[in-house]
Amino acid sequence: MHIHILGICGTFMGSLAVLAKELGHHVTGSDANVYPPMSTQLQAQGIELTQGYDPSQLDPAPDVVVIGNALSRGNPAVEYVLNKGLPYVSGPQWLADHVLQGRWVLAVAGTHGKTTTSSMLAWVLEHAGMAPGFLIGGVPQNFAVSARLGDTPFFVVEADEYDSAFFDKRSKFVHYRPRTAILNNLEFDHADIFPDLPAIERQFHHLVRTIPSEGLVIHPTTEPALQRVIEMGCWTPVQTTGEGGQWQARLLSEDGSRFEVLFDGVMQGTVEWDMTGQHNVANALATLAAARHVGVVPNLAIDGLSAFKSVKRRMEKVAEVHGITIYDDFAHHPTAIATTLDGLRKRIGDAPLIAVIEPRSNSMKLGAHRDGLPQSVVQADHVVWYAPANLGWDLAATVASSPVPTKVCDSLEAIIAEVKAQVKPGAHVVIMSNGGFGGLHGKLADALQ
Questions:
Q1: C-alpha angle 362/81/2, rounded to 5°?
Q2: Domain region containing 275
Q3: Do 110 and 250 share a domain, yes or no?
Q4: Deepest in the core among 3, 73, 117, 199, taking most CB within 10 A?
């Protein structure tokens, strides 16, 4: 069957393409911006990519068109599909119908940490010999691919609360029907879709409604929004993580790279790994709970975590030039920026830390999170903000109150000049964006040479 995917370079749709190819389908796709890591992964898989949405790509007509949630009415390819009456479906619906049917689905939902936690969980199951399938919105370095079918009942999916398609405004995750569900955390996000936090809580409650009474819901004790979701009704056993929860961590190093794990007060073992930050310790506890639910004993799961390598674009070290270390990170919400910088600060001690941040997400463009930005960077020594001409609000005025020295730039060249002026050997530079950032990482490394 010929499947054509509109919006194929999104992390979810790119992963879907990999699964469709593995099922034996002829897969093609297009996107407005074809960029790594998805474009390189897709080309390596032999999937033909078209730049842009000219309707000619749909002639001859494919058997089905999978339409990504970034596409809306007025897009020429979408209009062609509707006018010609071509069969079309959303990505989450296609996944549910063709991959997840009859599987033990382990879903990881939450505002932050979905990609990292689902990567951890897939790796822990792999380490335990359970050969899971997975679909992850990023490329886990333990697997070097973002999705695979797997040949056992177990399937790990990153369960996003974003909408499914222009014709299906439900959150993607209501299609997945998990048996094991991790609810990591819940804050206001996706201001282009949701009017307020209660609207997102309602979607999370729809997810909880789909989990069987023989399943498991895992959530931290410290998230009031998730507590409200559970109180709307839950028909499934619950395990809690973190402070006062059933799964707890006792830090042995301040940066979170070593910690003991306790379940119901009983010591289960010690995790020693390359990850940092309190957020990753929380991700690990949720992973251990989910793995135990499918039969992985905690000490084996802990052993797996110790061999976990992070996800591409999650505090990924991309270059080291003259003693200056450059990282690529996906953080784009004030909470994620703060926790990521905190984890790195605890690892590098007093070394100079420069953050370069692009407010690129739809919520950021709408200014939804701007009040949280000035304080989110307190662990950095210097921050360079990128304010493109089309941002739509005054970034410089927003970050003027930041306690950290800041510079707002309107071009990549200006950013590079500012970093060069500030940086010295021994410094760490973190580039934070949920997009390609115009290849800034490579350009900065070249400029520092």
A1: 100
A2: 102-306
A3: yes
A4: 117
Q: Are residues 137 and 264 in the same domain?
A: yes
Q: What is the mean pLDDT of the chain?
A: 93
- Look at residue 403 and tell me if it is in a domain: yes
Is 116 known as a binding-site position? yes
Number of domains in the chain: 3
Is 95 part of any domain? no
Do residue 34 and residue 175 come from a single domain?
Answer: no
Among residues 61, 90, 119, which one ends one of the domains? 90
Of 359, 353, 428, 341, residue with least CA distance to 399: 359
Phi, psi dihedrals of residue 205, rounded to the nearest 5°:
-65, -35
On the question of pLDDT at 226 being above 90, the answer is yes
**Last-in-domain residue among 271, 287, 306:** 306
The vertex-363 CA angle with 200 and 186, nearest 5°, equals 35
Backbone dihedral angles phi then psi of residue 92, each to the nearest 5 degrees = -60, -35
According to the annotation, is 245 in a ligand binding site?
no
Closest CA to 35 of 56, 11, 53, 55: 11
Residue range 120-126: mean pLDDT, rounded = 98
Please count the CA atoms within 13 angstroms of the CA of 199 that sit on its side-chain side.
14
Using alpha carbons only, give the angle 289, 160, 363 rounded to the nearest 5 degrees.
125
Q: Which helix (H) or strand (E) holds 399?
A: helix 395-399
* Same-domain check for residues 431 and 325: yes
Residue 120 and residue 287 in contact, taking contact as beta carbons nearer than 8 Å: yes
Whether residue 353 sits in one domain with residue 210: no
Q: How far apart are CA 220 and CA 43, in angstroms?
A: 39
Q: Is 150 annotated as a binding residue?
A: no
Ligand-binding annotation for 115, yes or no, is: yes
Cα dihedral sign for 120, 122, 126, 129?
positive
List helix spans (H) across 246-392.
Answer: 278-293, 298-306, 334-348, 362-365, 373-376
What is residue 32's predicted lDDT score, i.e. its pLDDT?
93
**Predicted confidence (pLDDT) at residue 367 exceeds the cutoff of 80:** no
Closest CA to 379 of 353, 405, 402: 353
pLDDT-based confidence at residue 363 (cuts at 50, 70, 90): low
Question: Is 114 among the annotated ligand-binding positions?
Answer: yes
Same domain, 230 and 336: no
